Amino acid sequence: MAMDWRSRPRIGVIGGARPKPAFEAQALEVGRLIAEAGAILVCGGLSGVMTAAARGAREAGGLTIGILPGAAPGDANPYIDVAIATGLGYTRNALVVMNTDAVIAVDGEFGTLSEIAYGNIFSKPVVGLGTWEVKGVTPAKTPEEAVRLALKLAGRETAPRPGRK
After folding, report:
1. Structural domain includes residue 163
2. How many domains does the chain have?
3. Structure-derived torsion over alpha carbons of residues 51, 105, 15, 46, reported in degrees to the nearest 10
């Protein structure tokens, strides 16, 4: 029986392209937990937090989507299952957020801040893990708390894993 991925929650992971190792480890764990919850991981598809989260999700059997700033799908990191090339540069940050039920920000700089702003604009819940402390971000202390909060705020506590009842 084919899996209907359309019914799965989509959790965005945003963050720095050059994170410190501790943030990279947190992003890896966030990705793994998203997949284990049966959710789809959506990210910008490139390096740093995006690679770590996608790797965690992929290694746990999850589906990963990368919405890329450039025009070449081949630019996606190796853990992206579905690469969507946009040719939009940073403008693609809006598309990353629009295609989620909630967003988890790990670390990050100004690109991440713009995605947090889009989360507020599009009324998407944003959970922060070592990121900007700004209006509209619900802070979390651990990857487990971040994923739990993101699913809860999205109204999608958990989803059954593919192949399970």
Report:
1. no
2. 1
3. 40
Residue 82 lies in a domain: yes
User: CA–CA distance from 23 to each of 70, 149, 156 (Å)?
Assistant: 25, 18, 25
CA nearest neighbour of 101 among 82, 127, 124: 124
Mean pLDDT across 41-62: 98
CATH of the domain at 93: 3.40.50.450
Within a domain: residue 3? no
Domain that holds residue 117: 8-153
Exposure string over 30-69, b if 16+ CB within 10 A, otherwise e: bbbbbbbbbbbbbbbbbebbbbbbbbbbbebebbbbbbbb
Give domain status of residue 51, yes or no. yes
Q: pLDDT digit string (tens) for 119-147? A: 999 999 999 999 999 999 999 999 999 99
Side chain identity at 22, as an amino acid letter? A
3 falls in which pLDDT band (50, 70, 90)? low
pLDDT-derived band at 5 (thresholds 50, 70, 90) equals: confident
Do 40 and 11 touch, CB atoms closer than 8 A?
yes
